[in-house]
């Protein structure tokens, strides 16, 4: 695999398949709960003045200029820390990429998360889950910014760091190649919240390359202020599905991954799952099943691959698999069953 395709280290336990759950999110209740990046205790050493989003935006609007971030400049070192770019990258603002840029197009959904050339599937799995919880989402992605009202080329995002929420501001210059975004992007070409969120997280960690390989648990904690738990799927608790079901009902964020085996060259299982790759768990449900011989409920999980393409599970309960003929139409509608090459798929918990 090329550098851009290698997802590196993903969340796992003891080198085995694992599931991750983060619970008890910490919610921002007032503006004083948030520290500006660079303030004492924010985990970031400032080079210039403390970056206050509202102050900077107002100053830029008054002066009629677009902001350029002196802390995270549009230079190669903001992308790579260990090497030179493999090809020329050009930093462009969304208005230079498309005619009608928007922060959101018909709201934010998990399908807005399409992995680019960076091995940060661990982060994207958490971002996709974040869209399922509107309150948590707008805690991380404040809704007081846009490309229309008070646009000054500056956006801000909030992450939980060292026991407090930290507000990270970025300008909207993004790495491109031949006019296309290089890294995280939306399925809608004129939607940019996900690309800007990734840039803010890269700034927090020093560069885009610093996001290559990581823990989905860490990203979930940074998005919620919650506490994460990890379960080894080779030695799971007997009630793990009930744990996952309760976590889903409580709006917890969940993900899973398979640790790659260094002795095996094949990076994909026979059923299409990618080893060393993070997946979001987007639904947990008992589904009614009615076969000629049995009636009852089967435990199913809905997963999403951050690649957002045809790389999906191909085993039982995959898209258009014969098992679905035993599920009543009303049940299919209730769980929102669709068969598309969008990276999302169902599978049995037992698999």
List keywords for this structure.
single chain; 351 residues; alpha+beta; Cathepsin B, Chain A; 2 domains; six-stranded antiparallel sheet; three-stranded mixed sheet; elongated; disordered N terminus; calcium-dependent cysteine-type endopeptidase activity
Short structural description:
The chain has helices at residues 53-63, 94-97, 121-130, 134-140, 193-205, 216-224, 240-249, 329-334, and strands at residues 18-23, 34-36, 90-92, 154-161, 164-171, 174-177, 180-181, 227-232, 253-257, 278-290, 295-304, 344-348.
Describe the structure.
- With 351 residues, the chain is α+β, with helices and mostly antiparallel strands.
- The chain folds into two domains: 25-219, no CATH class; 222-348, Cysteine proteinases (Cathepsin B, Chain A, Alpha-Beta Complex), CATH 3.90.70.10.
- It has helices spanning 53-63, 94-97, 121-130, 134-140, 193-205, 216-224, 240-249, 329-334, and strands spanning 18-23, 34-36, 90-92, 154-161, 164-171, 174-177, 180-181, 227-232, 253-257, 278-290, 295-304, 344-348.
- 20% of the residues lie in helices and 21% in strands.
- It has a six-stranded antiparallel beta sheet with strand order 8-1-9-10-11-12. It has a three-stranded mixed beta sheet with strand order 2-5-4. A three-stranded antiparallel beta sheet has the order 3-6-7.
Domain count, please report it.
Answer: 2
Largest sheet: 6 strands, antiparallel
Rg calc: 21 Å
Q: How are the strands ordered across the major sheet? A: 8-1-9-10-11-12
Strand content: 15-25%
Helical fraction? 10-25%
Weakly predicted, low-confidence segments: 1-16, 24-32
Overall shape: it is elongated
The whole-number mean of residue pLDDT values reads 85
Strand element count: 12
**Class by SSE composition:** alpha+beta
| Number of alpha- plus pi-helical segments | 8
- Give the ordered list of helices and strands: EEHEHHHEEEEHHEHEEEHE
Distance between the termini: 27 Å
